[in-house]
Amino acid sequence: MKIHVIYIDQSSKIREQVRSVDDKTWKELPIPAGLPAPINTSKISSGICHDTGNGHHWVFFSSLQDGLVHVVELRKESNGGDWVERKDLPQEFGTSLSGTAIATSLTDPTTFMLFQASNKDIFRVEGGYEEWDKSKTKVVVPGSQTIHRSPLASCIDSSGSTEKYYMFFVGDIDGKNHVQSLIDGKRATIAVWTPGSFIGAAMHNGKPHLFVNEVFQAVPRLSTYTYDGSSWTSLGAVNTN
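-> structure tokens emitted (241 positions)
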């Protein structure tokens, strides 16, 4: 089993590092020339679909094309091969906010992506393998209920007969910023948001898990929350030793 990390370096270039679970030595993998480059304010979202030999890795980031900011998708087979450009999201789907967070979740065969517009509205857009479906683009959180450049995260439970989508953002509640979930149209407050921090989400043992940077007794820590179908529960700090 291998761990892949995809990131944007200080020169605004996509980089990839990989290592085995039982080996702490990271190895850099080459990125093919000729692929779109991220803009210097771009955030990044990446993951894997079908964690098998037939699966694939994906990565999304903001890129400048023909004078407009697009969200570009790169994809490669998990059993090898090079990164290739797939579909991109042009600005006409909603004027994206410079430096917006990007959150993506993929199932078979749907791509779900969150991004924030210049008026602070948070959009969700759906697409297939090759293109986005403009008719399924919608505002899921109005700008009046969130913050400028809100962190975003999402995950999908595909284990049942119907898929369940979980999204996370930072909401403004009476002038205070909290990490919130949106599940089946219902919002819930989970934790106080630490300014400047990011959030992450993943499915584990059939439950969504949220990762939040918190300050506990004046000490920063990475905390985990999980959802039991009705409420969120803290699992405490992540052991980073």
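The mean pLDDT is 88.
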